[in-house]
Write a structure and sequence with these properties.
Helix content: 55-70%
Largest sheet: 5 strands, antiparallel
Number of strands: 8
Order of helices and strands: HHHHHHHHHHHHHHEEEEEEEE
Distance between the termini: 36 Å
Radius of gyration: 25 Å
Oligomer: single chain
C-alpha cells in the first residue's frame, strides 16, 4: 500500500509540474485560441478561393486580388486582438488558477479514489464520457469564426466583401438558408453581379435538394444576361434544363461551358461526361435518365461521374431517441479520416423527416478537391442530429459513429443512438 501511495504522490506532483508552471509564466502564448480560430476561418476562405480559381469561377487576376484582401483582413483582425490589458488580466487569472490547481488536484484525486476504490474503473469512466476533442475543436473554431464575422457585419452592414465571405462560409457548413440571406445582402450592396447571382442560385438549389424554383431560375438567367460566359451559371443552367427534360438546352449551355474550360482540367472532363449523357438522353438513350436523377448543384459540373470510392448504407435514428428530435431538425452524415486532418472528406445534409433513408458518400459530396473520399484511407462515418442546424456538436444533439470504414463500403447501418453531453 505504501508503494501505491508513493506512486500516487509522484503522479500528482508530475501533474502539478505540468499544469502550474505555464500558468505562472509572464510571457503570453504566441497565439490565443481565438487567434487560431480566426486563422482557421481565413484558411478555409483561401481554400474556397483556390477552388473557384480551379473551377474557372475566378480569373487569376480576381483570385490574386481576393487573396490579397483576405490576407489584409486576417492581419487586421489579429492586430485588433493584441490588447495589453487582456494580457495583464490573463496573467492574474493564471496565478489564481495555479493556486487553485495546487490545492484542488490532490484533494480531488484523494476524494475520487476514495469514492471509486478502483483507479482502473475511474479511467474507464473518464474515457467513455470524454468528448472527441479534435473533431469538436475543428467544428467549434470554424463556427466561432463565422459567428464573429456575422456579428461584425450586423454592426457594419455595408461591407459587401464581408457578406460574400460569410455566405461562402455558410455554404461550407451546409447552412444554405443563411447563405441565401447573406448573398442577398451582397446583391443589395452591389446589384447584378454575375458571380454572386450564380452563387445565390447554387445555394437556392442546395436548400431545395437540387429542385429548381422561380428564384433560382431567375438568378441564373440574370447572371447569364449580365455575363453569358459565367461558368457556374452555365453549369447550373444546363442542370436545370436537364431536370426539365430539355436535353437540347442543356447541351447548349454545357457545350459553351466546355469551350471556356482548360481542355485537360477535371472540370472539362466532367462536362464532357455530362454532354455525352445529355446527348444520349436527347436521342432517347438510357444514359440520360441517370443524369437527370443524379444532377448536382456543385459547379462547374452539374453532374459528377461515378467515383471508385463510395460509402453507402442506411441512416436512421434509434427508436428510443426518436421522440427527442423534431422533424425539421438538421441531420449531417459525414466521413472524416481516421488519421491526420479531422476535416470531413464527404458530407451530406438532410432533415429528421427524411429518415430512415439510404445515403451515399463519394467525391461529389467532398468539400474540397484536395480532400476527397478517394484520397482518404480508413474513415470514420458519423451521423449527427443537430437541433440548432450548426455543424458543431452541441449538448442534446444525437450522434452515431462507425470507425475504420473502408472508403469502398456498401450496406452500412448508421444509427444515431447516442446523446451528446
Amino acid at each position: 500500500m505504501t508503494t501505491l501511495w508513493l506512486i500516487v504522490l509522484a503522479l500528482l506532483l508530475a501533474t502539478l509540474l505540468c499544469l502550474v508552471p505555464p500558468l505562472l509564466r509572464r510571457t503570453p502564448a504566441a497565439e490565443t485560441a481565438s487567434d487560431a480560430s480566426v486563422r482557421a476561418f481565413y484558411l478555409a476562405q483561401r481554400e474556397q478561393l483556390r477552388r473557384d480559381l480551379d473551377n474557372g469561377a475566378l480569373s487569376p487576376q480576381a483570385h490574386a486580388r481576393a487573396d490579397e484582401e483576405l490576407q489584409r483582413d486576417l492581419l487586421q483582425d489579429l492586430a485588433m486582438r493584441r490588447d495589453p490589458r487582456a494580457r495583464l488580466s490573463g496573467q492574474r487569472a493564471g496565478i489564481a488558477a495555479a493556486c487553485v490547481l495546487t490545492v484542488a488536484v490532490p484533494v480531488a484525486a484523494v476524494l475520487l479514489y476514495g469514492q471509486l476504490g478502483n483507479p482502473r474503473a475511474a479511467a474507464t469512466i473518464a474515457m467513455s464520457q470524454a468528448p472527441e476533442p479534435h473533431a469538436q475543436e475543428a467544428d467549434n473554431d470554424m463556427a466561432l469564426a463565422i459567428n464573429a464575422l456575422a456579428q461584425r457585419l450586423r454592426a457594419s452592414p455595408d461591407d459587401a466583401d464581408g457578406w460574400y465571405m460569410l455566405a461562402r462560409s455558410y455554404e461550407t457548413l451546409g447552412r444554405y438558408n443563411d447563405a441565401i440571406a447573406a448573398y442577398q445582402e451582397v446583391l443589395r450592396l452591389v446589384p447584378g453581379q454575375p458571380v454572386v447571382l450564380a452563387d445565390l442560385a447554387d445555394a437556392l438549389l442546395s436548400a431545395r435538394q437540387g429542385q429548381p424554383d422561380d428564384d433560382s431560375i431567375a438568378a441564373v438567367a440574370q447572371a447569364l444576361q449580365a455575363e453569358p460566359d459565367q461558368p457556374k451559371a452555365l453549369a447550373l443552367a444546363g442542370m436545370m434544363a436537364l431536370r426539365r427534360g430539355d436535353a437540347a438546352e442543356a447541351l447548349t449551355h454545357w457545350e459553351r461551358l466546355q469551350r471556356l474550360l482548360p481542355a485537360d482540367s477535371d472540370a472539362a472532363r466532367q462536362i464532357q461526361t455530362n454532354i455525352a449523357q445529355a446527348r444520349a438522353m436527347a436521342t432517347g438513350g438510357a444514359g440520360g435518365a441517370s443524369v437527370a436523377a443524379a444532377a448536382s448543384t456543385s459547379a462547374p459540373a452539374a453532374v459528377t461521374p461515378s467515383s471508385p470510392a463510395r460509402i453507402a448504407g442506411q441512416a436512421r435514428i434509434a427508436e428510443a431517441l426518436r421522440g427527442q428530435v423534431a422533424p425539421n431538425d438538421t441531420v449531417f452524415i459525414l466521413a472524416r479520416p481516421m488519421e491526420g486532418s479531422r476535416m470531413p472528406v464527404a458530407i451530406l445534409k438532410m432533415q429528421v423527416a427524411d429518415l430512415p433513408r439510404a445515403f451515399a458518400l463519394d467525391d461529389s459530396t467532398s468539400m474540397s478537391p484536395d480532400a476527397t473520399l478517394s484520397k482518404a484511407g480508413k474513415v470514420r462515418v458519423e451521423i449527427r442530429v443537430s437541433r440548432s442546424g450548426n455543424a458543431a456538436a452541441q449538448a442534446g444533439d444525437l450522434s452515431g459513429v462507425l470507425t475504420d470504414v473502408n472508403p469502398r463500403t456498401d450496406g452500412l447501418e448508421l444509427v444515431a443512438d447516442t446523446v451528446v453531453r
